[in-house]
Design brief:
Blueprint lengths: L1 E2 L6 H8 L11 E2 L2 E2 L5 H8 L2 E4 L11 H12 L6 H13 L15 H13 L5 E8 H6 L4 H12 L2 E7 L2 H5 L5 E6 L2 E2 L3 E2 L5
Parallel strand pairs: 1-7, 4-5, 5-6
Antiparallel strand pairs: 2-3, 7-8, 7-9
Helix pairs in contact: 3-5
C-alpha cells in the first residue's frame, strides 16, 4: 500500500514505474527487467504483464465498454482466435459485470461504474503486477457490494503483486494480505515497512 498526503508524489511514482515519467536518477527494475534498457518491443512485452488503473480511469469515452475492456488484449497480446472472447467471458462471469453494459457507450456510466470498468480492464490481462492509483471506498464497496474487494483479494492470493494508492482505511479490508506500507512525503519514500504473511 502506497500512502501519503495529497500532492506528495504517489501518482508520479506509479507513472515512473510504468515508464511514463523518466526518473531523475537511478533505475526502474520492473518485474525483474531494467526498464531503461528495453527497446520498444521489449517494453511493450513487459507492460503487457502490468494492469493499471489510473486516477482519472484512462478509459476512452467515444468507445463502448466492450472496446475499452478488450483494448489491452488487442494492443498487447498476440492471442489466438477466440481468446479475447474467452478472456472477456471469464471476466464478466467472475466480476458480475452486467452483460448489457458491454455494448453501451462509456458515457452512459457514472463515475463509480467507470472505475469498476477500469479495474476490470486492468485485470483482463491477467497481470503479474497491478497498479491502482486512487482506490476509494466508494469503488471498493459500491458495485455489487464486495465484488471489488473479492477480485483484489483473489489477485493477491494468486500471487499478483498489487500496488494500491488507497483513499480509505485499507487495513480493514486488506490488512491480513498486505505485505507492508510505503509512505511518501515530498516525493520521497520515508517509511517503508514490510511484514511476512502466510499468503
Amino acid at each position: 500500500m502506497l500512502v501519503g498526503p495529497d500532492k506528495c508524489g504517489k501518482s508520479i511514482l506509479l507513472k515512473t514505474i510504468l515508464g511514463l515519467v523518466d526518473p531523475r536518477g537511478g533505475e526502474i527494475l520492473l518485474l525483474g527487467e531494467r526498464l531503461r534498457a528495453l527497446g520498444r518491443a521489449g517494453r511493450r512485452r513487459l507492460l503487457a504483464r502490468v494492469g493499471t488503473v489510473f486516477e482519472e480511469d484512462g478509459l476512452i469515452n467515444a468507445w463502448t465498454v466492450y472496446d475499452n475492456l478488450t483494448l489491452p488484449l488487442v494492443y498487447h497480446d498476440d492471442l489466438p482466435e477466440g481468446a479475447v472472447e474467452r478472456r472477456l467471458d471469464d471476466l464478466v462471469r467472475s466480476s458480475g459485470l452486467p452483460r448489457e453494459w458491454l455494448h453501451q457507450p462509456l458515457t452512459r456510466l457514472h463515475r463509480q461504474q467507470r472505475r469498476f470498468v477500469a479495474l476490470l480492464r486492468a485485470l483482463i490481462v491477467e497481470p503479474a503486477l497491478l497498479l491502482i492509483d486512487g482506490l476509494d471506498s466508494e469503488t471498493l464497496h459500491g458495485f455489487a457490494d464486495g465484488t471489488v474487494e473479492t477480485l483484489l483479494r483473489g489477485q493477491l492470493r494468486k500471487g499478483t503483486a498489487v500496488v494500491v494508492q488507497p483513499r480509505f482505511d485499507w487495513k480493514r479490508s486488506f490488512g491480513d494480505l498486505a505485505l507492508g506500507t510505503l509512505v511518501m512525503e515530498n516525493g520521497t519514500l520515508v517509511e517503508p515497512s514490510r511484514r511476512e504473511h502466510g499468503v
